């Protein structure tokens, strides 16, 4: 009689399943790793599951809520939830709060406990109480995690690893190069004004208002330049800079979209003026599509620029005019140069296949 191997269970703990870098990467992994091999469960800590929950379920994942409020009972509530599920692996995606999550997982007897660090900060004010809280959570992380993985060296540094601790290491995200590699653009071979792009949610750290200032300078330098801004979260941040932005015919407000390929196919250069980042998936997607990227000079992006072509970095202090000039230069790259950018990503370690192999190896450590 043949005994079927037991399917391992991996629980991912995160805020909500709304559109963002962490969620997009997790969804790509769900699509690439069959549910018949690994059962993935997503525990959301927010007050709702999130708008992507149905897409996770569609590829075989389970979605459950384990709300953080009331906070005082959250550790016990999470422990009880994990005792019911009995997973072999827990992956926590909530920055240094993963220290608390993985402590509950350890108490519940989960053998593999992984913290995923996806950003170089947490966006909170650096007050004395906040520093104490971070120190406590980092100490809990050191005691409870079997692995602490940063998407970049900068994001890993936020976990404050001790020198020589092998559990702390960099594991980058990967892009589905088959989906994005050298998207056949609608602009190929046509003499059109430069098209600037931005894809990302509305959040203070994304600094989207800076895009409008760059666009104003770019239009003054090259008449007809357009700007497309796609992503969830509304346009209040843009209206704070230009109250009439929605009436500006040279600015296309695409909103939230699943059709990232279509946005990239109609653009020349992607702008990313963030105040901080980890390893933004949209940068890898654009580069895989042969779209050059102009981004803020941040540690994680600096590391990426050393390994792939097509990523140009500028400090925000350079100002909108310098950004505009550089963006217009990049928008004029020839097809051959765009092919080289795409090929550099497709041949790198930043691919979905590489990511799947790395995560599968981590998860099978529980067997």
What does this structure look like?
The chain has 367 residues and is of the alpha/beta class. The chain is 38% helix and 17% strand. β2, α2 (53-58) and β3 form a beta-alpha-beta unit. The chain contains 15 helices and 13 strands. It has helices at residues 21-32, 53-58, 74-85, 98-107, 128-144, 153-157, 177-180, 209-221, 236-239, 260-265, 281-288, 299-305, 319-331, 335-346, 352-363; strands at 8-14, 38-44, 62-65, 89-92, 112-117, 147-150, 168-170, 195-199, 226-230, 251-255, 269-272, 293-296, 311-314. The model has no long low-confidence stretch (mean pLDDT 92). α3 packs across α4 (98-107), α4 (98-107) packs parallel to α5 (128-144) and α8 packs across α13. The strands form 2 sheets. Strands 3-2-1-4-5-6-7 form a 7-stranded parallel sheet. A 6-stranded parallel sheet has the order 10-9-8-11-12-13, with helices on both faces. The relative contact order is 0.12. The protein is globular and about 65 Å long.
